[in-house]
Automatic annotation (TrEMBL):
Record Pfam families: Aminotran_3
Residues holding pyridoxal 5'-phosphate: G126, S127, D260, P323, T324
Site feature Participates in the substrate recognition with KAPA and in a stacking interaction with the adenine ring of SAM, where: Y27
Recorded name of the encoding gene: bioA
Record-given protein name: Adenosylmethionine-8-amino-7-oxononanoate aminotransferase
Superkingdom classification of source: Bacteria
Enzyme class per UniProt: transferase
Known EC number: 2.6.1.62
Length: 439
């Protein structure tokens, strides 16, 4: 494609043409099937689109940019935190150096997560934090003389990221990583946890879990799950009872427990971390997505003193992982500001308000032909169809209602920013319903 002059703004049609010629988008072919919308700016809960024919259109964001932008866009305090940090330094290497934003963040994460979690590894994306969690668990067993404990167990329907080891614990069938079955390490799977946050514990499922963990304990390094909400693997909710059960089984059989709270962390399910619904702590916890309020890419892997001490007793007593942008000061500074902002307000009340708003505004969707289930938990609303969604038609229907949604598989769902007002919530509910009708 013909070159363009640097410094001059691209007309929208040219921008879209260059995008289609050169740019990969998530989970997409090249060139992309659908033409992406061009976002010019974002403020509060609104994305401002530049239209190909000129002019603009605003959409209410129903996605929080994939669980991340919990305070909306352009929040003055978060903007200021980035600017202040930019005036000091945007980045320095973390090997042999440290700085206040990262130290404050690590100490804060230790303070607000369950008590046994004491040590923090700052990673640059969620998938990397899951890689680090897995490495910690395998290395722990290797270091204490049990190198044969190197498999992972999970339940089906999960999602833990797109790099290779995390892919090995994503749902092996329904997920997007089926292609890699022959390449990935073979992990152990049990069925999906029985659905329903309030559903009573299913004794048959519990027995199956118990049996498998006991039988495989000699080779099992860890159980890894998303607590309470399985996100990109199917937007399913399960009872915290299963987390208590996993904690008990892991303790009994000498297996570590990893909670991937990358999607659930920072209040989304109504608890600050989903582990709190169960009143237990994992040995290792992954955080990401909302950690910086959606401003910059950052994730964290927390572990207990026991895991860290185990690793330190090994023949190779170091955790051999060190991303170039580890502990990035800009990201850490805005994470600190985002956590301050969240905890300073009555966020439980806001999440509750969104839960109620979504329940009300999605109630009508249950009667739409082709809708199999409507469910809401915390600030998450899901409409599940009985057929694969027509993504283009569903997205267009939502956009016509003035809302940005990103349906996938058989799911039309929303996890709006916590600052979303009641009118905008109603609009999101109407858009989800319209997308269900169209898709
Ligand atoms: C998004 C997500 C990941 C991957 O995080 P990235 O930052 O996209 O690498 C892992 N686990 C869960 C539960 C997620 O929701």
């Amino acid at each position: 494609m013909a070159p363009f002059s640097p410094g001059t703004p691209l007309p929208v049609d040219r921008l879209v043409a260059l995008d289609r010629a050169h740019v990969w988008h998530p989970y997409s072919p090249m060139p992309g099937k659908a033409t992406p919308y061009v976002v010019e700016s974002a403020s509060g809960v609104r994305l401002r689109l530049a239209e190909p024919a000129g002019g603009h259109r605003e959409l209410v964001d129903g996605m929080s940019s994939w669980w991340a932008a919990i305070h909306g866009y352009g929040h003055p305090e978060l903007d200021q935190a980035v600017r202040d940090q930019l005036g000091r330094m945007s980045h320095v290497m973390f090997g042999g150096l440290t700085h206040e934003p990262a130290v404050r963040l690590a100490a804060r994460l230790v303070e607000i997560t369950p008590e046994p979690l004491q040590h923090v590894f700052l990673a640059d994306s969620g998938s990397v934090s899951v890689e680090v969690a897995m490495k910690m668990c395998l290395q722990y067993w290797q270091s204490i003389g049990r190198p044969e404990k190197r498999r992972l167990l999970t339940w089906r329907g999960g999602y833990h990221g797109d790099t290779f080891h995390p892919m090995s614990v994503c749902d092996p069938e329904g997920g997007m990583h089926q292609l890699w079955g022959g390449v990935l390490p073979r992990q152990l799977f049990v069925g999906e946890p029985p659905a329903g946050f309030d559903a009573p514990l299913d004794a048959g499922y519990a027995a199956e879990l118990d049996e498998l963990i006991e039988r495989e304990a000699d080779e099992l390094a860890a159980v890894i799950v998303e607590p309470v909400v399985q996100g990109a693997g199917g937007m399913r909710f399960h009872s915290p009872e299963y987390l208590r059960l996993l904690r008990e089984l892991c303790d009994r059989h000498g297996v570590l427990l990893v909670f991937d709270e990358i999607a659930t962390g920072f209040g989304r399910t109504g608890a600050l971390f989903a582990a709190e619904h169960a009143g237990i702590s994992p040995d290792v916890m992954c955080l990401g997505k909302a950690i910086t309020g959606g401003y910059l890419t950052l994730a964290a892997t927390l572990c207990t003193g026991e895991v860290a001490n185990g690793i330190s007793r090994g023949e190779v007593p170091v955790l051999a992982h060190g991303p170039t942008f580890m502990g990035n000061p800009l990201a850490a500074a805005v994470a600190n500001a985002s956590i301050d902002l969240l905890l300073r307000q009555d966020w439980q009340q806001e999440v509750k308000r969104i839960e109620t708003g979504l329940r009300d505004s999605l109630a009508g969707a249950a009667g739409v032909p082709g809708v199999r289930d409507v469910r809401v938990l915390g600030a998450i609303g899901v409409v599940q169809l009985d057929h694969p969604v027509d993504m283009a038609a569903a997205t267009e229907a939502a956009v016509r209602e003035g809302v940005w949604l990103r349906p996938f598989r058989d799911l039309i769902y929303t996890m709006p920013p916590y600052i979303t007002g009641d009118e905008d919530l109603a609009r999101i509910g109407a858009a989800v319903t319209a997308a269900a009708v169209a898709g």
